[in-house]
Specification:
single chain, 4 helices
Length: about 120
């Protein structure tokens, strides 16, 4: 079964399709990642158990995932192994260091960055 959902960012409405077993993982779980995860769950596009994340601060990660039913992973490798779509939501200067250890695990996955261009 394929579901169609939409998210609204600013004044734009974005359409996307998901299937029942697609999983989305966030490497970094700050404000932007939390908003995206919450939107995916609230829209019904994904169930909370289809969303996972990792972050440097494990205690904060658990505080921000558990109430929503999202999964918390110890590291980027856990997220990369879990997810079909990986959202990179870390500070621009951290991207290379965070992704280097999991580069091989990202082959064949959709990788999205929330890093601004430039």
């Amino acid at each position: 079964m394929v579901r169609v959902g939409s998210l609204i960012f600013g004044e734009r409405d974005y359409m996307f399709q998901t299937n029942d077993d697609m999983k989305v993982g966030f490497i970094g779980f700050g404000n932007m990642a939390q908003a995206l995860a919450a939107g995916l769950a609230a829209s019904g596009a994904l169930q909370p158990g289809q969303i996972g994340a990792c972050a440097r601060d494990r205690a904060k990660l658990h505080r921000n995932t558990e109430p929503h039913g999202f999964l918390a992973f110890d590291d980027a490798a856990g997220v990369a192994g879990f997810a079909d779509v990986v959202v990179v939501a870390v500070k621009p200067y951290q991207v290379e260091a965070v992704l280097a250890p999991v580069k091989g695990m990202l082959a064949g996955k959709v990788v999205v960055s929330v890093k601004p261009p430039g």
